[in-house]
Amino acid sequence: MTSLSWRAAGAFTLSAALAACGNNEPGAALAPKTAATLLADTTQTLVSTIDQAGLLPLNDTAPAQTARRFDASTVSADGAVIAFTVYVPDIPVGSSAPLLLEGHGWGGKRTRDLDTTSYDAAANTPLQTAKLALTSGAQGGKAGGRGWYVISFDQRGFGDSGGFANVMDPEIEGRDVKAIIDWAEANLPRLAHRKNRDGVPDPVVGGVGLSYGGGFQTIGAGVDKRIDAIVPTSTWYDLRYSLYNTPKSEYLALLVGVGAAGLGRAEPFTYQAFVDASTFNRVSPNFSQTMYRHSAVSYCENDSASMQQPGIPGFFIQSSNDILFNLNEGFDAFQCYRKANPNSKFMAVRFGHPDVLVSSTSGTKFTEENVSCGGASIPVARLAFSFLSQNLVDARLNASYSADYLTVPDLRAVLEDGSATNGAKGETAEGGCHEVAKLGTNPSGAPLIRRGGASATATPSSVQNMVAGVPALLAPAIIPNDPATLASPLMKSFTGPEAGTVVRLAQPSGSDRKLLGTPTVTLTVAPTDPLQAAIDNPPILFLGLVRKTADGRQQLVHDQVQPILGFGTQTVTLPGVSMLLHGSDELGLVVFGYHPQYFNYYTRIPLSVNVNGISAGLPFVD
Known about the structure:
The radius of gyration is 24 Å and the shape is globular. The strands form nine sheets. It has a six-stranded mixed beta sheet with strand order 4-5-9-7-12-13, sandwiched between helices. Strands 20, 21, 24, 28 and 31 form a five-stranded antiparallel beta sheet that branches. The protein has two domains: 59-436, Rossmann fold, CATH 3.40.50; 454-618, Jelly Rolls. 18% of the residues lie in helices and 25% in strands. The longest helix has 15 residues, at 173-187. A hairpin with a 2-residue loop joins β16 (370-373) and β17 (376-379). The chain has 622 residues and is an alpha+beta fold. The model is unreliable at 2-20, 24-51, 422-430 and 437-443 (pLDDT under 50).
């Protein structure tokens, strides 16, 4: 939901960069295209004139539209004003244009200028996609027009919109989305429509947005069936997992900090949840249930009174280094949508919401800008645009039909390779693709994404006398309920593998291996002193995967850790991985007794434990 920056003195500050996932950021233009046969200039005329079946304006006597941009607003169900900017393309008589909705991240605001490349440096895929739609999206009818309507809106509680943010309540923010589509139907001439299953003309609507801007799509589509296809980027599937049931202090602090910095207005219950999580290691059951209702998981489990699984295609772009919304969120959302619509797709990329304590180069981007697939450097935004074109306008718009559009594979991943080589914009070297064959309809209902996999027994198989709790050196730096804790320079030294205990899971194999999916770990946690088990002080440990290179360097894979709570034997699902393990690399498991990503979530009274019988299931795909 957020991004952030440090001042030179090292003090943690919230700034306009906090909202970078919704706003323009200075930067360079898209990298030059290669493989012209795949990435032909979108200004050219289609190879042959196509008639997008059933895609017609509701009133074909409407006048032609001239390209322009203007601000407008509408009133939502509860009276709150929702403000937005409307982009209109040239639409000749005989053509009609779909509508693309774009929503910003938490703390952001709408985009008032799509005619810029200033957001490219941050690889803001949704804004790049929206620009492609505005300038080159194929229109309906036989006139051969180009360009879609785009509406970029201020989400409730941010920018010029009224009300207070409710963290995507379907009964509130979901109805905001509905109000915008109602306004579009009433006010956009030559808006493309297609008959729904009941024979009633519906507007053709797609969605893009990242982080909180991904949430408006999954929640909005669950409320309003007029949305036809979505591209949620770096967003959540289940907010309980993302933030609250094991309180992720690092990002909870940043969400609260948005209000403190004057970047938005949130309902008081969001602040109370932060206090509860930081004070008691948990939120209330009622709040947890509320976050369940504000997540796609509720309708995916057929347990939402406000939403239904929309049955539309979704293209889920999720980042492996995303500390707030890790790969598992995208895996689960994709599997939910894929079961309902076989046109749904998934792509794992790098970067995302970074571990701000590490503040590595991964924090400069939201997604990949380009991916190297089949010898071609392909902008991620063009893949998103092609997916929307094929599902909103015409399924024939693919690589075999027109060079303007690309076929989006069912499942694609950019594998983190551990390279220290930096690209021109600070990113690691452009990632290569790993593509999984078409998945089909999966009638068996088996998971589409590998969970667990190759068995691995840790060496050694136990960790003795691990201390769970705040290290004495850090204790003075941790201030409950205070985001300023993240400013402590001590915190960074406790984020890497060196701060924990590492055991080996896979030794060098001599050849590269690919991992894509969710690793599992089974272990038993026991108190070093059996009398400690009778005290109400359950241990909290943190697990992560570690890459160890031939020269002895250790890397916490994707900067990810997973908390576990309590004594006994348990099997834990770790954050998803999308990585290339080189033949000379080892793969290990690190066990931490404390981790700063969860700086307010820890064993309250330091406790010595033994971790025994460590084994893992690793999702190798080759």
